[in-house]
Amino acid sequence: MTLYFTKDHEWLRVEGESATVGITKHAAEELGELVFVETRDAGTVVQAGESIAVVESVKAASDIYAPVDGEVLDNNPQLSDDPARVSSDPEGEGWIVKFRLSNPDQLASLMDADAYAAFIA
Amino acid sequence: MSADTLLHTPLFTLHEEAGGKMVPFAGYAMPLNYADGIMAEHRHVREHAGLFDVSHMGQVRLRARSGDGEAAAHALERLVPADIVALKNGRQRYTQFTNEKGGILDDLMVARMGESLLLVINAACKDADIAHLQDELADCLVEVLEDRALLALQGPAAEDALAALAPAVRDMKFMDVRDVDVDGALCIISRSGYTGEDGFEISLPAMDASRVARKLLEQPAVKLIGLGARDSLRLEAGMCLYGSDIDETTTPVEAALEWSIQKSRRRGGAREGGFPGADVILAQLEEGVSRRRVGLLPEGRAPVRGGAPLYADVEFATPLGKVTSGAFGPTVEAPVAMGYVATDYATPQTPIVAELRGRAVPATVHVLPFVPARFKR
After folding, report:
1. What are the binding residues of B for substrate?
2. pLDDT tens figures, B208-263
3. Residue B223 is part of which domain span?
4. Residue B74 carries which DSSP code?
5. Domain assignment present for A48
6. What pLDDT, in 10s, does the model give residues B181-212?
7. Least CA distance to B336: which residue of chain A?
8. Is the pTM of this model over 0.90?
9. Nearest-neighbour CA in chain A from B134: distance (Å)
10. Are B153 and B8 contained in the same domain?
């Protein structure tokens, strides 16, 4: 399995020691059209549960949390001009950060697609 | 409060049918937005017409026990700083209930209809306002209009949409109030609203609300709009939200609402003072205040929201106040906010700084509203 989901409605696509992180379609629908996305700088080392990004709709700001321990490698450069990309294609072009996993064993605690589908049902 | 104890307005079924995202608001299940989302709904109101259910708000009929309308007006002036006595039949105005310190207990609309005054009060303040009226105005009858719904139809297409059902509304001007028959429903319509657009608020019997709403929605220009867009629309229009921008600790003068205190109630006026906190408020009108509510345009794209501290400098050495409402303005296409700052910094174009997630975000004091009002004067 390379695709994982969290209870905070994020997805991670794992390739080797790094992962791409975004929010799920379900989360994007709940948040409504996004007007602003801000991520932690590349090189920021975080523990699972710490904020790695903030996404904002007209109405509210929501934190995106690191699903596992690691380091922010990169962010999606297209979101500063077009944050609504997260709303229109959350699990594709609307990815938010790339992330280096410092403790891949933690992935075992996350959900696969079927478990996540059951979680939001 | 759990979902099953929330109150429903007469339009609850319509909201659910329309895919409304229902959220708790002041004890009611209310639509935050529908399928199109807040951004699209906001723009629809500025370009066409939006229909809002605001039936959660309180509607109160106030009459003097003597039956005399003028006596009711004199009575209400004991609780608010506006001139109610001079309010003509069929006209409405904005005012506030004040406390002994000059703070604001609630803000409200008051209409003179014959020998009655009709009040529209905030949902969250309903019980306290009604108790306040009953306690303080023993010479009046306070009738809570529980069986009436309230709709708002707002936007440049609102007049055409409502006139298709009730042509008489074309003759109404901003802040006019009239009894109007709409599809057989006995409505009380005011030409007013909370968006900065031309439009109407329609009070009608609960039993007629869903039918009239559906008739309005049959018109292509009219869409249902939720509370989310209502908030961003009123923020762009520079209007206060009670509990955020004004409360018991802010006076009408600090809140830049002195336009709602007519000359007759000020020092030297025919009916000077005589409302709670008049000593504080009338002194502030002459001597000024130490802080003022202002509009703010933050630089960049990040919304600066209610609670964000405001400073004179990027080192956060000189605090000025805080943001009370902030969001992304869909029409302005940028973040907009309002808040209180030290009066020396309240002049439009003054550069200040907001603290956002520990960072300094430059912001400019901006004249309110952010979007020009389009009332039909």
Report:
1. 201
2. 999 999 999 999 999 999 999 999 999 999 999 999 999 999 999 999 999 999 99
3. 3-56+147-236
4. H
5. yes
6. 999 999 999 999 999 999 999 999 999 999 99
7. A58
8. yes
9. 37
10. yes
Three-class SS string for A82-121?
CCHHHHHCCCCCCCCEEEEECCHHHHHHCECHHHHHHHHC
Supply the CATH number for residue B38's domain. Answer: 3.30.1360.120
| Closest by Cβ to A35, choosing from B33, B40, B303 | B303
Give A59's pLDDT tier (boundaries 50, 70, 90): confident
What residues does A21 pair with on adjacent strands?
A12, A97
Does B228 sit within 8 Å of A36, measured CB to CB?
A: no
CATH number, domain containing residue A51 = 2.40.50.100
Question: Length of chain B, please?
Answer: 377
Nearest-by-Cβ selection for A36 from B37, B231, B302: B302
- Chain A residues inside the 8 Å CB shell of B302: 36, 38, 56
Q: Which residues of B touch A (CB under 8 A)?
A: 32-33, 37-40, 42, 228-229, 231-232, 301-303, 305, 327-328, 330, 335, 357
Mean pLDDT of chain B: 97
Residue B322 has pLDDT above 90, yes or no: yes
Spatial strand order of the sheet with B185-190 comes to B177-182, B185-190, B199-205, B148-154, B49-53, B222-224
Residues of B in contact with A41 (CB under 8 A): none
> Predicted confidence band at B58 (pLDDT cuts at 50, 70, 90)?
very high
CA atoms within 13 A on the CB side of A52: 33
State the smallest CA–CA distance between residue B329 and chain A in angstroms: 7
Residue A72: domain span: 3-94
Give alpha helix (H) positions in A1-112: 25-31, 84-88
Predicted confidence at residue B41, as pLDDT, reads 98
Residue B293 has pLDDT above 70, yes or no: yes
Residue at A58 is within a domain: yes
On whether residue B375 sits in a domain, the answer given is no
What is the total count of domains within chain B?
Answer: 3
What ipTM was assigned to the predicted interfaces of this complex?
0.85
